[in-house]
Design the sequence.
């Protein structure tokens, strides 16, 4: 439940995302002996591995703590949306139920039955819930953390997995206080709730527990962003990538994080689309595999929440007309991506004069030295960079309009 070491962080900045030094050495060796065509299978294998990487997040706690609502919130869904976890005032979950992310189905949230129920006593809980399946656990309480929560956390810790204490429904607590006292000091009352949770956990044997206070209906308030940052920081490089890309676009900061991650994928798409067999795009002085280029752009658009379904969900969550959000997206990014769209947006024309030397200056040195001289790779890389820039700017404007942020 801590961040990466300084050496790990340095390694991540000096090498392309998700490759080990051994894999990079093999890439270079294969390129030197067989060119781009010999490197492509290695890149295809890595892309497949990334696409197939699973992230399984278990959400548990006693009945009525808001597990299902939390799962829906993390997936950018409301309880009435297709595929949403069932929400109720009684125990609606009788066995582990997995809910895939609507855009990245390899990210799956698991709604577990409440611990301590007659059917699932604490002593048998982890065995029944298939403990090894999950990357980490989120333990939710809507009131105070109870003995059963503490027992579960200790067992999770003993078995070497991370867990997080989440106190939900703090918006309900504050509203109840306002009804009774009319005027309250919100910061002071939240401090009391946090202190009470920490005191109970210390009594249960946790020396320095961290508790996140959240409302699943008001993710821009309280500790929701802090929780997401904590989860992100404790994941390895590959799983961190898919966790961030799966977050709903609730802030400009999230959009920018997604942009950084997607940038690290561009060189792989460029490798796959460049090389032998590449053909010029009509109207653009660029040789590439247009199917791969268009597929990459569509992928970027979905991850940045600019597809129709994501925009509709965001509009409903923010209480804004979806037309207002779509008006912030650079035309014609909303429609079908075709070679004609690439020409109209000027992505290809803007890069045809870029030199390999300029390219090497803003790219990862290890890979830049291998591919810097390949014109089709270079052109595809710059085209996708321009496309991602336009998509990120559009996503940023959409978020600002949705939540009226500066």
Sequence:
């Amino acid at each position: 439940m801590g961040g990466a070491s300084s050496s790990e962080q340095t390694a991540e900045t000096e090498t392309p995302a998700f490759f080990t030094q051994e894999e990079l050495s093999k890439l270079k060796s294969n390129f030197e002996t067989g060119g781009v065509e010999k490197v492509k299978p290695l890149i295809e294998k890595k892309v497949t591995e990334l696409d197939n990487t699973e992230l399984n997040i278990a959400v548990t706690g006693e009945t009525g703590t808001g597990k299902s609502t939390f799962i829906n919130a993390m997936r950018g869904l409301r309880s009435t949306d297709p595929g949403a976890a069932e929400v109720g005032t009684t125990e609606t979950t009788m066995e582990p139920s997995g809910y895939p992310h609507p855009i990245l189905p390899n990210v799956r949230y698991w709604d577990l039955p409440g611990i301590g129920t007659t059917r699932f006593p604490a002593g048998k809980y982890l065995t029944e819930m298939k403990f090894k399946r999950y990357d980490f656990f989120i333990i939710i309480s809507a009131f105070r953390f109870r003995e059963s929560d503490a027992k579960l956390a200790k067992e999770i810790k003993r078995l070497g997995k991370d867990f997080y204490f989440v106190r939900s429904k703090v918006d309900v607590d504050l509203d109840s206080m306002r009804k009774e006292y009319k005027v309250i000091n919100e910061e002071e009352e939240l401090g009391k709730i946090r202190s009470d949770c920490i005191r109970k956990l210390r009594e249960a044997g946790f020396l320095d527990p961290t508790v996140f206070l959240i409302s699943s209906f008001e993710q821009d308030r309280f500790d929701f962003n802090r929780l997401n940052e904590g989860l992100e920081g404790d994941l390895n490089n590959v799983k961190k990538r898919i966790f961030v890309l799966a977050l709903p676009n609730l802030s400009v900061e999230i959009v920018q994080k997604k942009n950084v991650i997607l940038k690290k994928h561009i060189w792989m798409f460029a490798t796959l689309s460049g090389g032998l067999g590449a053909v010029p795009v009509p109207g653009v002085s660029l040789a590439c595999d247009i199917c791969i280029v268009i597929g990459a752009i569509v992928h970027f658009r979905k991850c940045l929440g600019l597809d129709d379904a994501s925009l509709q969900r965001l509009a409903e969550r923010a209480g804004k007309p979806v037309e207002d959000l779509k008006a912030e997206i650079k035309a014609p990014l909303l429609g079908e991506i075709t070679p004609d769209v690439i020409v109209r947006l000027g992505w290809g024309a803007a890069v045809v004069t870029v030199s390999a030397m300029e390219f090497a200056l803003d790219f990862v040195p290890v890979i830049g030295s291998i591919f810097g001289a390949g014109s089709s790779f270079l052109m595809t890389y710059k085209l996708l960079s321009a496309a991602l820039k336009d998509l990120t700017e559009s996503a940023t404007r959409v978020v600002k309009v949705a939540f009226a942020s500066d």
